[in-house]
Amino acid sequence: MFKFVFLNWNAAELYVSLIKKIISWDFTPMDYLLIDNDSQEEDKAIIKQNLPNEKTIFSTSNVGYAAGLNVGIQHFITQKDIFLIFVNPDVEIEENNIKILLEKAKDLGSKCILSPALLETKHTKTSYHLGGRDYSKYHITRHVIDEKKWQNMHKNTLLSVDYTPGTFLIVHIDIFKKVGLLNEKYFIYGEWPDWCFRAKKMNYTPMVCPQATVIHARENTQQYTRKLLNLYYTVRNRLLYLHLNSPPNFRIKKYYWLAFFRLKWLKNTLFFSTDKSKTILKAIKDARILTQN
């Protein structure tokens, strides 16, 4: 009934540990598939040494996050009445929280698009990530509350959100059959907001379950090149999202964001980082190419 889909890129040790924990639980029928997105050879070796061949698929190139997950979705797409559970390697999960989530998923049935609350800590400060807000409207789309608000909220009620993050996400297979796969043009970042937008147009509702928490170990520090990569896909994919999901008579959002990113490019060019300004400019140009295809 429940099928875990893991997409690995040089995080084999984390995934092997996570899988061993999951298969030690016996409270519900579960299965898994790990797709390797062309990791380094030593990382692939860890997978081959610890996981059976029938539970793994190895890509010959890094096809990106969206395309990698699509491999897993397509692997299970012909099956009936199953839930796919997508899990990133930077999470810590506990059995009692997963039990709550799975019961909520069963209650939602074929309408299930469900994430837990993501417990995050940065510089000793604790916060809870409760899904995302309109990707075309807000600069910061992550809906985050602090510890005090968390303590005072009613946690037994599911929250309706604009999109659920793929950090830990449960989706009924029937929804993919109707909505379709993730859009592989995004490569990484923006694919779940886009997919949830399409799902909402077909009367599905992305939900967050505050009653269940999963620890999300967000990177507090990143290498400079990784930050530039994140900046590139944030800019490029926001513009791509607006092109794909804004109605033809409401392009003002697209022009607003284009002006916003051009202003960021100008500020970085004049006062801050030429690397960032070049990254933003390339992202804008590449978004234009993507939207013309």
Describe the overall structure.
- With 293 residues, the protein is α/β, with parallel strands linked by helices.
- The protein folds into two domains: 2-216, Spore Coat Polysaccharide Biosynthesis Protein SpsA, Chain A (Alpha-Beta Complex); 224-292.
- It has ten helices and eleven strands.
- Strands 1, 2, 3, 4, 5, 6, 7, 8, 9, 10 and 11 form an eleven-stranded mixed beta sheet that branches.
- The protein is globular and about 60 Å long.
Summarize this, please?
The chain has 293 residues and is an alpha/beta fold. Helix content is 45%, strand content 22%. Strands 1, 2, 3, 4, 5, 6, 7, 8, 9, 10 and 11 form an eleven-stranded mixed beta sheet that branches.
Overall pLDDT metric: 90
Q: pLDDT below 50 for ≥5 consecutive residues: which ranges?
A: none
In what range is the share of β-strand residues?
15-25%
Biggest sheet character: 11 strands, mixed
What would the principal axes of the Cα set say about the shape? globular
Helical content, roughly? 40-55%
Total DSSP E strands: 11
Order of helices and strands: EHEHEHEEHEEEHEEHHEHHH
* CA-CA gap between termini: 38 Å
Total count of domains: 2
Named CATH topology of the largest domain: Spore Coat Polysaccharide Biosynthesis Protein SpsA, Chain A
Q: How many helices?
A: 10
Rg, rounded, reads 19 Å
CATH-defined architecture of the largest domain: Alpha-Beta Complex
CATH classification, class level of the largest domain: Alpha Beta
Please identify the structural class as seen in this structure.
alpha/beta
